[in-house]
Each structure stands twice: as structure tokens, then as C-alpha cells.
Write a structure and sequence with these properties.
Layout (H helix, E strand, L loop, with lengths): L6 E6 L3 H4 L14 H13 L3 E7 L38 E6 L10 H7 L4 E7 L1 H14 L3 E5 L3 E2 L3 H15 L1 E3 L1 H7 L1
Parallel strand pairs: 1-2, 1-4, 2-3, 4-5, 4-6, 5-7
Helix pairs in contact: 4-5
Length: about 190
């Protein structure tokens, strides 16, 4: 990996739904990602890197194709879509929120346009779940011509076998799976 590209941190779904106990999508293993996510976020802010908070948000009460596969979830204004404490966006120019209605942070959002306008060529993708939203985001980032990096410690799934298979696929086909330390060095 070339350390000179302009790099952005893309945090995916670091929201109450996954990280707060008793929420629908919470699973105990998710807590293991919090130290790595916090470290990535602190490093990105300290180095003035672009930080994108990609969060799933659906329109309240309206039809949504995704609801054919999953029950209604992550509707705007509900508690489960709020940022998990400590991961709220900072009041700084280089930190933004991208709402998404599908698994990928790129599909039907302006994320690719934003990244290109900021001369970003590499994205560090972290958050949940490895085999769903992380994979979809990584695949679309790769398809869009971005170098993709996924820090192993900063993602997981309630289906560990699928998370491992996904990380293997990402390393083989879409990008690089690295340690937290290696990812932070790229910011």
C-alpha cells in the first residue's frame, strides 16, 4: 500500500441499534470493536483527516424496499439511529454524516462525489456488520476506484463465520485487511 494517497475514515453504523444493550441489533461481541473504533476516530481527528459517519436511516412510516427482508428499523427520529455515545460527529469541517437507506454507504448517496471533491483516493472502512454493511460499502468503494482498507479489530458480526469469510474476500478481491496500527498509520 502506498502511504501517500489522501485517506478518509468511513465509520459505518456506529449507532445505538448495534451498540446499546437491549436494542434489536445488539450482540455482545460488537463491544469488542469499540476501542479500535475510538482509536481510529481519535487519530483521524488529530490528523485532520476527513471522517464520514455513514448511518442507516429510513423514512419514518414510508415504504422501503429493504423492509421486505428485514422488519422496520432505523427510522429517522427513533432512538436506535442516534450515534452511540462517544461517536457523535464533532463540530468540524472535515467531519460529516451521510445517511444511507441501503447496506452500502455509496449506493444512492453523494459519498463518492464528496470523496472525489476532497481528492480522497483511499478509504478506511470500519463499523458493523462485517458481512453486511461493511462488505457492501467495501465492494462499492472498490468498484468506484477507491483503495480500501479494513482494520480487522474495528469490525465484526453476530455471525463470526461470515465475518471471517467476508474479511478473506475483502483481502482477496477488494482491498486490504490490516491491523488497527497499520490503518492508523495511513490516516
Amino acid at each position: 500500500m502506498n502511504p501517500t494517497p489522501e485517506t478518509a475514515l468511513l465509520l459505518v453504523d456506529v449507532i445505538n441499534s448495534f451498540y446499546e444493550q437491549d436494542q434489536t441489533n445488539y450482540y455482545p461481541e460488537v463491544e469488542k470493536t469499540l476501542p479500535a473504533l475510538a482509536s481510529l476516530l481519535d487519530t483521524a481527528r488529530a490528523r485532520d483527516a476527513l471522517v464520514v459517519h455513514a448511518v442507516e436511516r429510513h423514512y419514518r412510516g414510508l415504504a422501503d424496499f429493504e423492509f421486505a427482508k428485514l422488519p422496520r428499523h432505523h427510522q429517522a427520529g427513533e432512538h436506535d439511529v442516534n450515534f452511540f455515545p462517544g461517536f457523535e460527529p464533532a463540530e468540524r469541517v472535515r467531519e460529516i454524516v451521510i445517511p444511507k437507506r441501503r447496506y452500502s454507504a455509496f449506493y444512492a448517496t453523494d459519498l463518492e462525489l464528496l470523496l472525489r471533491e476532497q481528492s480522497i483516493t483511499r478509504v478506511i472502512v470500519a463499523g458493523v456488520k462485517t458481512n453486511v454493511c461493511i462488505r457492501a460499502t467495501v465492494q462499492d468503494a472498490f468498484a468506484g476506484g477507491f483503495e480500501v482498507v479494513v482494520p480487522r479489530e474495528a469490525t465484526n458480526s453476530n455471525r463470526p463465520h461470515l465475518a471471517e469469510a467476508t474479511l478473506e474476500d475483502i483481502e482477496r478481491y477488494f482491498g486490504h485487511v490490516v491491523s488497527l496500527h497499520e490503518a492508523e498509520a495511513l490516516l
